[in-house]
Amino acid sequence: MRTAGTTRRFLTDPVPDALLHRILDNARFAPNGGNRQGWHVIVVKDKATRRALHDLYQPPWRAYLAERYGLGPGAVPGPDLPRALRRTMEFAERLHEVPVHLLVTVELSTLAVTDRDLGRQSIVGGGSVYPFVQNLLLGLRQEGLGAALTTLLIPAEPRVKELLGIPEEHALAALVAVGYPAGPLPTRLRRKAVEEFTTRDRFDGEPFGA
Ligand SMILES: Cc1cc2nc3c(=O)[nH]c(=O)nc-3n(C[C@H](O)[C@H](O)[C@H](O)COP(=O)(O)O)c2cc1C
Asked: What percentage of the chain reaches a pLDDT higher than 70?
């Protein structure tokens, strides 16, 4: 949990099916509403398909770059930009070179969406698929593989469905890019301390210390 960070630079070496199968075989024990297990994983290794997914990733990625960082379509990952952003730009440019794309979908009718009538953005449905995705990330890290959980492809869902034959009733939850890392795997992630997000008895209670 402390070291399963995002990898954005990969070797092109192939990843054995048996290894991916073992990781999936552990990840499937994720909690999910009513144990309906509505997830489906497409293991994409085919080169042309990865290229097509790369191409579909670009417009939402460009839109995100513009909105979040004010960078236009001609922006290049130059030394003037922060390192993490440069890495993310390079990753988007080279997504098709990452040897495995795990496309995770979920059958919408299996989701127990307990916050659907609250008149605000619903978040509970995702809770029946993202623990599974997190298990995948932990399993990949355990096996020495790098991974990047991405959701920027999701605005292109109709095209992705067409490309991969995903049925209408499934929604795209994530593209997890997987491969052997081009450098060392992360060892230190930057996250808030427990006391910054945990309180005692009430939301406005005192910070929860050990
Ligand atoms: C729901 C979700 C969606 C994400 N989508 C993307 C994405 O589309 N592209 C990307 O490069 N990284 C994506 N990330 C990775 C985050 O940028 C990353 O987890 C965060 O910056 C923390 O970095 P670290 O895991 O290396 O510490 C996503 C992460 C989550 C949890």
From this structure: 100
Expressed in angstroms and rounded, the spacing between residue 146 Cα and the centre of ligand 1 is: 13
Atom 7 (ligand 1): residue with closest C-alpha? 150
For residue 151, report the distance from its CA to the centre of ligand 1, in Å. 8
Domain boundaries of the chain, sorted by first residue: 17-45+100-112+120-197
The per-residue pLDDT for range 162-196, each reduced to its tens digit, is: 999 999 999 999 999 999 999 999 899 999 999 99
State the average pLDDT over residues 130-136. 98
What would the pLDDT profile of 57-88 be if each residue is shown by its tens digit? 999 999 999 999 999 988 888 999 999 999 99
Helix (H) or strand (E) holding 102: strand 100-107
Give nearest CA residue, ligand 1 atom 10. Answer: 150
Query: Is the CATH code 3.30.460.80 the one for domain 17-45+100-112+120-197?
Result: no
Distance (angstroms) between ligand 1 centre and the Cα of 201 equals 31
Q: Which long-range contacts (CB under 8 A, 24 or more apart) does 15-20 make?
A: 15/99, 15/100, 15/145, 15/178, 15/179, 15/180, 17/43, 19/143, 19/145, 20/100, 20/102, 20/178
Distance, CA 7 to ligand 1 centroid (Å)?
10
Q: Which residues line ligand 1 (CB under 6 A)?
A: 5-6, 88, 91, 148-152, 186, 189
Query: Is 0.90 topped by the overall pTM?
Result: yes
